Amino acid sequence: MLIVATIFIVFASMTVMNMLIGILCEVISSVAEEERAGILTENVHQKFEFVVASLDENCDGHVSYREFQGARWRIDHPQALRAFESLKVDPEIVVDFAQDWFLDEMGQPKSLNLQEFMDMVMDLRGGQNVTMKESSCG
Questions:
Q1: Over the stretch 95-123, which tens digit does the pLDDT of each residue have?
Q2: Where in 12-111 does DSSP place strands (E)?
Q3: Per residue in 70-89, pLDDT tens?
Q4: What kind and span of H or E run contains 112?
Q5: How does DSSP assign 3-22, residue by residue?
Q6: How far apart are CA 83 and CA 124, in angstroms?
Q7: In which band, very low, low, confident or very high, does the pLDDT at 63 lie, cut at 50, 70 and 90?
Q8: 3-class DSSP state for residue 129?
Q9: Angle at which helices 91-102 and 114-123 cross, to 10°
Q10: Minimal CA–CA distance to 67: which of 102, 104, 108?
């Protein structure tokens, strides 16, 4: 019985150790993915500061629907197009969603600051996992 108990204890401790190593690897990969997303967000945020500043005609720090609808950002700012491409966001989709972003529930125009604009653009990235926020039907 001593041999069977020793074998059981060895296998049980090896199993627990393997589970802990798996959990540790999963945590490390999750943290690395969050760091990559944070770095991407920071880089794109720096690129979009210029884009939002160029869209902001009245220099109030916000972009309104009227300012966004001006087609000049697509023509005059290849940096904006490169910023969208680096995020894997189609600029035409941004234009399609602009009405939803810049109009409130009552249909009244509203303006967005840089952070709100960036959050909405980041939601349009390709290759994201679906979360409960996006998958809710109501």
A1: 777 777 777 777 777 777 777 877 777 77
A2: 62-63
A3: 655 555 667 777 777 777 77
A4: strand 112-113
A5: HHHHHHHHHHHHHHHHHHHH
A6: 13
A7: confident
A8: coil
A9: 130
A10: 102
